[in-house]
Amino acid sequence: MLSIVFSSVILALLLTFSHKFLTGDGDFTLLSKGKVKRESFQDKQVGELVCKIIAFHSSSYCYSSIRVHIHMCCKLYEVEVVLIILLFLHEGEVLAKQLATLGAKLIISARNEPELERVKNQISALNLGKHGPEGVEILPLDLSSGEDAIREVVEKAISLFGGAGVDYVIHNAAFERPKSTALDVPEASLKATLDVNVVGPISLTRLLLPHMLKKGKGHFVVMSSAAGKAPAPGQAVYSASKFALNGYFHSLRSEFYQKGIMVTVVCPGPIETSNAPATSTSSKEKRVSSERCAELVLVATSHGLKEAWISYQPVLAVMYLVQYMPSVGFWLMDKIGAKRVETAAKKGNTYSMNLLFGRKKE
Q1: Residues of the chain above pLDDT 70, percent
Q2: Which of 61, 168, 238, 351 is flagged as catalytic?
Q3: CATH 3.40.50.720: does it fit domain 26-35+80-316?
């Protein structure tokens, strides 16, 4: 009798596990965390001081007026400031709106200043968050402009909101060209991809890191890709840039973790955006919505996860195989590689199991 009960429990657990694996939109650790921890992005009260002896630290913000009676106290708050690099504008815009709702102060950056103004105006019009229009600053930034130009942007960023500095950086920039074989990538595309996806984010991080170390805290959120965890036939240079990004930021975290620096590397698969809707290539191609992706990014960040995967199947399964059974994972990618490039050229579904099981053309 006990053996039957035990077997039933094991079977139920296996069925639950299989269902979550087949229908989930993220890795098990990420999905187990539940909701976003709102307090991670909200202003935090750190004490009260008599106004006569208040000394404003560069990372503090005082809501009370200085012109008060000597015996009155004011509350001191640490302002949670998030710098979002919005080069993938739609995804970055959704992130910005969710962060504003959570109570963060935002610095939004991209090359297109009118688009930044539009995002700021939308956040204001929707009355998101508690800070109003004063809670969003725009800061034009071109990650391919070189270190000197990026340094100017960094100095401006840390001076905003009364010199509060930057607590979170969300690296959301990405440069990607249509899929092709590694042989067909022109030099200009190679250079542009590495400049925007690798060199720019590293330069920005190197320049911001000393300021975070002075504050004793900082959190880099890196929007990488499933192509940074597994081979991506047809996207060799893009995949290389994401592998490089993963290696750099995981190494950086290991070097500075004990000094308060955190890193969360997020590896999304296909995401539904304004540029790539769910039905753009095939009605069977299932993409995670931008809103859900942003929510999971903030879950991973607020819970301090070091890495998170966001995708439906079969991409999620491929990442698991390459991570934990690399021989099988690489065999699988070798089987579908050439066919994936051909399918991409015809604007077909490059995330379909038919790439493996579909019939070969004679």
Answers
A1: 81
A2: 238
A3: yes
